[in-house]
Hints:
Helices cover 29% and strands 17% of the residues. It has helices spanning 34-60, 75-81, 122-126, 130-133, 137-141, 164-167, 199-205, 217-220, 250-256, 320-347, 350-354; strands spanning 64-68, 93-100, 104-105, 108-115, 173-179, 186-188, 191-192, 264-271, 281-282, 285-292, 303-310.
Amino acid sequence: MGKxxxxxxxxxxxxxxxxxxxQRLPAWSPMLTTSTVLPFMYCMAVLCLVVGVSLLITxxxxxxxxxxxxxxxxxxxxxxxxxxxxxxxxxxxxxxVFTLEHEFKGDVFFYYGLQNFHQNLRKYMDSxxxxxxxxxxxxxxxxxxxxxxxxxxxxxxxxxxxxxVANSMFNDSFALQYQVQPGGPINTVPLYRKGIAWYTDxxxxxxNPPRNKSQTLAQVxxxxxxxxxxxxxxxxxxxxxxxxxGFINEDLIVWMREAAxxxxxxxxxxxxRTQEPFTNGLPAGNYSIDIVYNFPVQYFKxxxxxxxxxxxxxxxxxxxxxxxxxxxxxxxxxxxxFLTVIWWKFGxxxxxxxx
Length: 355
């Protein structure tokens, strides 16, 4: 038998007469009535209230201490020192002291924070070369044009890592000291400086260029220049750990993940709880922080701070989500009451509606 002749004419492109093509499939069409809508809204209000209160109690269980050190203690001298543009790139040492009134129990995280630093600007976020950061040799010596104007130095040597994001890397360093009482012995608080970056960033998005066993990291980066505002080359970022240099340096990786808001904090280290008196956390007492003050903030009217915080399963001390749930609960409850009044007055029976 031959094939059926193709249909021609104005009805040639008409859809098949099937339930699917003609949209005759069975569908669920809920009828929104007061007996279904009002109980649902009251249940949603109660559910959001329970979740909000639970999250708020969880957040209240965290402990947090913020210390603005921009002009605190002897750091005021460094702040004034870096006001002079000719001192840009020079280091300055200072110290701030504070007291913990209560013990911070459990794991304690050490953050640095910046205020009024807009990492979320589109041109700033684009000013990087991800192909270079993943270790491609071609991009190491020929950075992307997105890095403009931080592609080549004044001698036309390619910059590695290139771009405004890497060039503005936060480079203050901290040493936390603990003193039980004035005049007593001083203990250095041990901070674990590894494992602070996201796993996917450290193992996928950032890799050093390939090298053979006889090459050093400095030889791999030979023929490249450091970003203009850096004090050391990328292969010497961590003089204490040779495995934490180059594009896989964790401080660099943490900085390269841009913040969404102008006020943010980034992880610097985690308390090591293997030695006394820090096995249970940070004990109450007197503390000082020795700071190598490198990062200038006066040019963008910013502030710098250190943050000590404990965490729970929900994270750090962030009340946004609990408050959002509580506000949602309140709004849904008010709308439910309003609809109940409307129903009671006009819709409980049809008489009022007819009038």
